[in-house]
Design goal:
The complex is a heterotrimer of chains A (115), B (234) and C (654).
Chain A (H helix, E strand, L loop, with lengths): L2 H4 L6 E2 L10 H22 L6 H22 L2 H8 L3 H26 L2
Helix pairs in contact in A: 2-3
Chain B lengths: L1 H5 L15 E2 L5 H37 L2 H7 L5 H10 L8 H26 L3 H32 L7 H32 L8 H27 L2
Chain C lengths: L33 H7 L3 H30 L9 H36 L7 H20 L27 H29 L12 H32 L14 H34 L6 H14 L15 H29 L8 H21 L4 H7 L3 H31 L5 H28 L15 H34 L39 H6 E3 L5 E3 L3 H4 L8 E2 L6 H17 L5 H17 L16 E2 L5
Parallel strand pairs in C: 3-4
Antiparallel strand pairs in C: 1-2
Helix pairs in contact in C: 2-3, 2-4, 2-14, 3-4, 3-5, 3-7, 3-12, 4-5, 4-17, 5-6, 5-17, 6-7, 6-8, 7-9, 7-10, 7-12, 8-9, 9-10, 10-12, 10-13, 12-13, 13-14, 17-18
């Protein structure tokens, strides 16, 4: 990798105007609606009497979607990522968090399946 | 101290004197620091959630296998029926009251909505709405905490004590830790409301509201995980 | 809880009013010298020096138990220490050295150098920086008070469950270990947030990622490891705390718990911890070797990326500490392979240092010698380390002196040699005089001798089967000779370790007798930005924020290529260096709050151990101090700093 391709320190801006790109109140309400619907779906799914993968997988998927919605809209991650404009740091930070969490999955798997 | 408060009424609405500091990434230091702190919190709750999952699994295995100490740990004078149901189902589900917890989850999600609306109000310079939304958020958060206290009391009566069983230790530690985070958030919200009444939480400090919001939403997200992983996948 | 700090919340929004005392704020400390100034300072340089002093103190403090261990083991069947005392002593030696020496020593260099190397006036959050130091010190002091309040912890620095439970360790030593390290961990965490924000956001114009000095890079990786590893340890300690103080069952086998969970959590923290202890030293060496080989660092991008790779891979090797714990064959295989892989980026670094030395005009002064000492001795430690990747061999070596030899080679022969190199290298920058070279060389060679004499024989002892953490051994086991040598070596090593203090004193007196000559801004003709300002560093660091145009920017101001492409000196450091005129620079004001918040935590800690009632005043003090903190303006408003021209604000938030 050349030095030039990493020379990305020129995203130097001031941050005082970043509030202008935040979503509207309507977006917030719709987001909330989506979260409520997903929660209702989750609860309904847990009452279907399923077990194993059929129970767990859809629930986990819905959980991850809820997670992404809160982080993206309420925590302004989508707009803030725009400011960082695909900066390598955000990618590395994301990978680091993912890796760190997967460490726990490995521990759990080691116990659960005695591998 | 009092004289400092008096002259706040005359304070004009902040003009645009507030210069944005130069930062290399273009994101303010405070916000970056908050995100880093939350990143570290992910690991904290990750460890607690995995500990819960592991402990629950070990608890159920021993319970179903009929380990007398484990059975005795969860039993009290009145809950023989509940314990039997847990053993036959091989699940902790009989303990939970899903409709009740769904309601508290709804309340916490709602508080996230009111939190962003509070931030929106402060960026628009609408300080009355700021205080209304902050108070609503605080109220919803307090309601959630009240629900948790109620739930803990119920579980305790049903035989799930902190020191009796592995499940109890793990469950109360995980949800209690989340509760402690909510309480911390409530203190921050209360301080924001106070400062807003004193005229110290104005447009140019919208970022402070946003930072408290980030923390609050994070606590909400953790509950999203706990609700699914602990309550629904029993 | 996050401390929300920003603009002065106690003031009405908008223009700060100078007429009124801000809400709930004391008058601020004004001292510029003396004890009060040190206690309230938010200057990253002073905090860095305090970190250094504290960790050197703990180095001596933690060395005493080490010598006691060696005395006890000098001959077979000795009764100098009882089994119980021996347990406490080796536990405290390990804990103090890891948490109170190597980690804060890295923090000392990071604090002092990071803002200087990226061209900043201070760190992003100066008050949080002060807090990080004080809370580390509070935790460290609290840990050591256990000696006087009922005995030290006795479970080893890793404190395996269920041995750490109340049933097997009924004293309060382990509670001290638990709570005090949790408190010190707060300091590491806030320090990590602070330093990462500083590097990410406060680089001087033109200081792009691939122009950052290697030390800054390694520190950044270190701080990320801290950010993610500390909470894992905190959770493990919380579980233990709940088990011990509130009858929890996390590690209670009778209730079906699996105590192996502790080992997993501890080593998920513990292995990144190992790398975060060595990476700052790697960074130091990567600054010292190019300076005295008179060459740029070989393969700069490889140095950077291997550091990042170590940071990532450090998370995937924790279970190689647990090969004998009964984890399954797939885990053993996977972690053995990962352990072999992580040797690759480390090897890249060693090769790059050697390639930097190759063909250089070597100046073998003390700093350089210590750096070369790191490269050789760390390589030895790395080789014995990678031998643990062979799981069957590791099964033999686990819990023997072979392991003790290995980690002392990487942590003492590696990290501490690196830190000593850094001390000799940056001493004139921090204090304005050079350390004596002659004593320095004595320091180095006695240290090499003592170190290898102490820990070299332990390889053999370990392979012969001498177990760790055993209070004594029998003549029939055949460990006598090498143990005696190791004990002799340990006293030489103690003497060598101390001699840097003697050197500091002698050099200081000599410098004072000579009329305090200034060593100049750039005594080593070095490469990074901290050498472009006066020595000792002016309080405001840079008169003007530098603009950076290349890697080793400072060097290329001094040297430029002539028409034949040969580097020639074009200007002296004295001509180029900033004169140290801080007029018009406004710095963040000192504050009482960081130290108050920090020392409210041990009150809560003692409460958790002795009586929960004590927690109540502790929590109130904490909350009150946090309010005081967030209401206090970062700038001292009573101090008129509106001199002409318009002051240039340091880019800090408080």
């Amino acid at each position: 990798m050349s030095t030039e391709s990493m020379a990305v320190g020129d995203h130097s801006t001031t941050h005082d105007d970043d509030h202008e790109h935040h979503p509207t109140a309507k977006t917030y309400w719709l987001t909330f609606l989506a979260l409520v619907i997903l929660t209702a779906l989750e609860v309904a799914w847990s009452y279907l009497g399923l077990s194993g993968v059929a129970l767990v997988l859809p629930l986990l998927i819905m959980m991850v979607i809820k997670f992404a919605i809160v982080a993206g809209v309420f925590m302004h991650l989508y707009t803030d990522l725009n400011i960082l404009n695909g900066h390598w740091f955000t990618v590395a930070f994301g990978i680091a968090i993912g890796l760190a969490v997967s460490v726990y999955v490995v521990v759990f798997a080691a116990f659960q399946f005695n591998i | 101290m009092a004289e400092a408060i008096i002259d706040q009424a005359a304070t004009p609405v902040a003009d645009e004197h507030h210069e944005g500091h130069y930062t290399s990434l273009g994101l303010s230091n405070m916000k970056l620091a908050m995100w880093l702190f939350l990143g570290s919190e992910v690991l904290l709750f990750g460890a607690l959630i995995s500990t819960y999952l592991l402990s629950k699994t070990r608890f159920l295995t021993e319970l179903v296998a009929g380990n007398p100490e484990v059975v005795a740990g969860i039993s009290n004078d009145e809950n023989a029926e509940l314990v039997n149901e847990m053993i036959t189902k091989g699940s902790v589900e009989p303990l939970f009251d899903i409709p009740f917890t769904s309601l508290s989850s709804f309340i916490l999600l709602m508080s996230s909505l009111t939190m962003v609306l509070a931030h929106k109000s402060v960026t628009e310079g609408n300080y009355k709405n700021l205080r209304i939304w902050l108070s609503t958020t605080m109220l919803l958060g307090a309601t959630f905490m009240a629900g948790q206290v109620y739930e803990f009391t119920t579980f305790y009566r049903e035989g799930l004590t902190y020191d009796g069983s592995l499940l109890g230790t793990a469950f109360y530690t995980l949800t209690g830790f989340h509760g402690a985070h909510v309480t911390g958030g409530l203190i921050m919200l209360g301080s924001l409301i106070y400062l807003s009444f004193k005229g110290r939480m104005q447009k140019d400090r919208a970022e402070t509201v946003e930072l408290v919001g980030l923390y609050w939403h994070f606590v909400d997200i953790v509950w999203v995980l706990i609700f699914t992983i602990v309550y629904l996948i029993h | 809880m996050a401390i929300v700090e920003q603009e002065p919340l106690a003031l009405p929004a908008g223009e700060p009013s100078r007429s009124a005392r801000p809400l709930g704020v004391f008058s601020r400390p004004r001292n510029t010298t003396g004890l009060k100034n040190w206690l309230t300072s938010v200057d990253h340089k002073k905090i860095g020096i305090m970190y250094g002093v504290a960790s050197l103190f703990f180095l001596l403090w933690g060395g005493v138990p080490a010598l006691l261990i060696r005395l006890q083991l000098a001959r077979p069947n000795q009764g100098l220490l009882s089994g119980d005392a021996y347990n406490q002593i080796f536990t405290m030696h390990g804990t103090v050295m890891v948490f109170l020496v190597v980690m804060p020593m890295g923090a000392a260099f990071a604090n002092y150098l990071l803002p200087l190397q990226i061209g900043a006036r201070d760190v992003a959050f100066p008050r949080i920086n002060a807090f990080s130091f004080w809370v580390f010190l509070a935790g460290g002091i609290m840990l050591n008070t256990s000696w006087f309040l009922g005995g030290g912890p006795d479970g080893g620095w890793f404190n395996y469950a269920p041995n750490n439970g109340i049933a097997y360790s009924p004293g309060i030593g382990i509670d001290f270990w638990n709570v005090a390290l949790m408190i010190a961990g707060f300091g590491s965490l806030t320090g990590a947030v602070n330093l990462i924000t500083t590097v990410l956001n406060m680089r001087a114009p033109g200081m792009t990622w691939m122009r950052l000095p290697v030390f800054t890079w390694m520190t950044l990786v270190t701080q990320f490891l801290l950010l993610f590893a500390i909470p894992v340890l905190t959770v493990a300690q919380l579980l233990l705390l709940f088990d011990r103080r509130f009858d929890g069952n996390f590690f209670n086998v009778a209730q079906g718990a699996d105590p192996l969970l502790w080992q997993h959590l501890f080593w998920i923290f513990g292995h990144p911890e190992v790398y975060l202890m060595i990476l700052p030293a790697f960074g130091i060496v990567s600054e010292v070797i190019p300076a005295f080989a008179r060459k740029p660092i070989f393969g700069y991008p490889f140095m950077v990326f291997s550091g990042i790779a170590i940071g990532f891979m450090g998370w995937g090797v924790w279970a190689h500490h647990m090969f004998v714990s009964g984890i399954g064959p797939l885990s053993v295989t996977a972690f053995a392979v990962a352990t072999m892989f992580i040797a690759v980026p480390t090897g890249v670094k060693v090769l790059n240092w050697m390639a930097t030395l190759w063909g250089g005009k070597l100046i073998l002064n003390t700093a350089m010698l210590f750096s070369i000492g790191l490269v050789t001795q760390f390589t030895l430690g790395g080789l014995s380390g990678v031998s643990h990747a062979i799981a069957p061999a590791d099964t033999q070596q686990t819990d023997t002196y072979y392991i003790v030899a290995h980690f002392h080679y990487v942590l003492f022969g590696g990290a501490l040699f690196g830190f000593y190199s850094g001390l000799y290298f940056w001493w004139p920058k921090a204090f304005g005089y050079k350390l004596n070279e002659k004593i320095g060389k004595w320091n180095f060679w006695t240290m090499v001798l003592g170190f290898n004499l102490t820990f070299g024989p332990m390889h053999i002892l370990g392979l012969q089967g001498m177990p760790r953490r055993m209070q004594t051994y029998d003549t029939s086991q055949g460990f006598n000779t090498w143990n005696m040598w190791a004990t002799i070596g340990s006293f030489i090593l103690a003497f060598a370790t101390l001699s840097i203090l003697y050197n500091a004193l002698v050099s200081y007196l000599g410098w004072r007798r000579a009329g305090r000559p200034n060593p100049g801004p750039d005594p080593w003709d070095a490469r990074s930005l901290e050498w472009s300002i006066q020595s000792p560093t002016p309080e405001h660091n840079f008169d003007v924020t530098p603009t950076v145009t290349s890697l080793d920017d400072w060097w290329y101001h001094k040297y430029q290529e002539d028409e034949n492409g040969v580097l020639r000196r074009v200007a002296s450091s004295k001509e180029l260096a900033q004169p140290g005129n801080g007029e018009g620079v406004h710095l963040p004001a000192p504050s009482y709050w960081p130290i108050i918040v920090a020392f409210s935590l041990p009150i809560i800690g003692y409460g958790l151990i002795f009586s929960l009632w004590l927690c109540i005043p502790g929590v109130f003090l904490l909350l009150a101090a946090m309010y005081g903190w967030s209401l206090e303006p970062a700038d001292d408003l009573d101090q008129d700093h509106h001199s002409e021209p318009e002051p240039e604000l340091a880019q800090t938030h408080g």
